[in-house]
Amino acid sequence: MPSATTLMTVAGPHRAPAHNDTTAMAVGKAPVVDMRAVVDRSFSEPGLAELYDAFCQGRPDFDFYLPLVMSAEAVLDVGCGTGELLRLARESHHVGRLCGLDPAAAMLDQARLCSEVEWILGDLTSARWDREFDLVVMTGHAFQVLVQDDEIRASLATIGSALVDDGCFVFETRNPLVREWEKWIPDNAVEIVSTDGAVVRMAHEVETPVENELVRFRTTYTSPGWDRPQVSRSTLRFLDADSLLVLLSGADLVIEEQFGDWDRGPLTDASPEIITIARRA
To answer: pTM of the entire structure?
Structure first.
């Protein structure tokens, strides 16, 4: 059975700056932010956002990403969600700039419980930076939420602009050859116990047929004390390594390394992940 972490992370983070929340249009070096992004209910509904970290306990990707964050002076976490990665970095005594970007206000409400990080409400189609970050990360398969070529190109252009010369962009996508979505079935539902003691069940169901690299599915949350289920609908794109290479090259990002798992194993047809470290050309 897939773990709660596998099922939930389907999206579904130098000198220290003044820490603040940016939620409106700004000038100068602050990003210009557009609030029109459409957000899945799993992340936009406050009650579900509160459950996210409980469903994602024991994430193996953080053991990979956290050392990278700790070694970088300024870090942008795109699709930061509840901000867990950047919070862990600050608690581990990262003294540089940590900035989290996410389009879901409910997720950022959870992130803002840590006040020692910049939290920005928005997405890569609307935010702008100029040579400000040594490292940009997209964790939790957030890159797969970008489903259109134009959307990916625009996002990669923003990332390229945000990186300093020789800066790195690190992210992962699920390997489409493994067809992990075939495990996203109601029989593989997972349960957690919320902070108030309620049992909450989460189940996925994929719409068939799966075509053109796009996987559409719904996530249903139920709990004995709720009046009705909560349902979230999502679409993810499963790009192969060759397609990623073309898109990254078009954005002047050069692949430096790729791995097939969180232990830095080689990328093969059977690898569950395509973990990419790309550097600004």
So the answer is: 0.87
